[in-house]
Design brief:
It contains ten helices and six strands; from the N terminus they run E-H-E-H-H-E-H-E-H-E-H-H-E-H-H-H. By secondary structure, the chain is α/β, with parallel strands linked by helices. The protein has one domain: P-loop containing nucleotide triphosphate hydrolases (Rossmann fold), CATH 3.40.50. It has a six-stranded parallel beta sheet, with helices on both faces. The longest helix is centred in the first third of the chain and has 14 residues. The protein is globular and about 45 Å long.
C-alpha cells in the first residue's frame, strides 16, 4: 500500500477537483515525496495539463510535472492502483464527478485514506455535498478500514464573511472542514496547462499540512 492516498471528489464538474489535485501533487513532490497522480476522470484533464505543461519552453519537460501521472478511469481503480503505486508513494486521485461516473468515483472512494470534497462557500455548492456524503457512507460498508473525509473550501473571496459562514454551515451538517481555505486567485484559475507557479504555493502547503495532521495516527507521512 502507498504511504498516503487522497481523492478529490464532488458531485459535479467545475468544482476545482483537478486544480486541487495538481497543485497538491506538486506540493508533496516539492517536499521530497514520491508522488503518483492518478487521472481517474474520463475527460483526462490532469493528463492533458501535464502534456501541455511539458511543452512550456521555460522548463525541461520532466520538470513541469516532477512526478508520475497515469490515466486510470476504471471501476477497478481500487484494485489497479496498488499494482502501480510504490510503497512510499503519496497517491493523489483526480476522481470524476459522481453524477456522471459514479462507478469510477466509488472505486476511488474504496481505495483512499482521505476523501477531499472541494466546495466553494456558496449555498448551492454546500447543498450539493449531501449526495457525496451519502455515497461515502455507502462505500464505508464495503471498505476494509474506516473512511475519512473533509471539505476543502476553495474559490474563497478574501475578507468575505461567506467563508466563515460556509465553514460553520458545513460543520453544522457534520463535516470536517480543513483549516486552510483556498482563495479565489487568478494564479489558480489560469494555471491549467502551465507549470505550477511558485506564487500561490503557500496556500497549498497549508492544505497539505492539514491533510498530514489528519493522518498523524497513521504515522505514515510527514512534510
Amino acid at each position: 500500500m502507498p504511504g498516503l492516498s487522497v481523492a478529490l471528489l464532488n458531485l459535479k464538474p467545475g468544482t476545482g477537483k483537478t486544480t486541487s489535485a495538481v497543485w497538491l501533487a506538486h506540493i508533496f513532490a516539492e517536499a521530497g515525496k514520491q508522488v503518483l497522480l492518478v487521472d481517474a476522470d474520463p475527460s483526462g484533464s490532469a493528463l492533458e495539463w501535464s502534456d501541455l505543461a511539458a511543452m512550456d519552453p521555460r522548463l525541461p519537460p520532466s520538470a513541469a510535472f516532477p512526478f508520475r501521472i497515469v490515466a486510470l478511469p476504471s471501476r477497478r481503480l481500487h484494485l489497479r492502483v496498488p499494482e502501480i503505486a510504490y510503497p512510499d508513494d503519496v497517491v493523489i486521485i483526480d476522481a470524476p464527478q459522481l453524477e456522471d461516473h459514479a462507478g469510477i468515483a466509488r472505486s476511488a472512494m474504496r481505495f483512499v485514506d482521505e476523501i477531499l470534497i472541494p466546495c466553494a462557500p456558496s449555498p448551492i455548492e454546500i447543498n450539493r455535498t449531501t449526495p457525496v456524503r451519502d455515497e461515502i457512507a455507502e462505500v464505508e460498508a464495503i471498505r476494509d478500514r474506516p473512511v475519512r473525509s473533509a471539505v476543502l473550501l476553495n474559490r474563497c473571496i478574501a475578507r468575505a464573511h461567506s467563508t466563515a459562514n460556509a465553514k460553520e454551515s458545513l460543520e453544522g451538517l457534520g463535516y470536517d472542514v480543513l483549516r486552510t481555505a483556498v482563495p479565489r486567485l487568478e494564479v489558480y484559475a489560469q494555471s491549467f496547462g502551465l507549470p505550477i507557479s511558485e506564487i500561490g504555493r503557500d496556500v497549498w502547503r497549508g492544505v497539505a499540512g492539514d491533510i498530514i495532521e489528519r493522518c498523524v495516527p497513521l504515522g505514515k507521512v510527514q512534510l
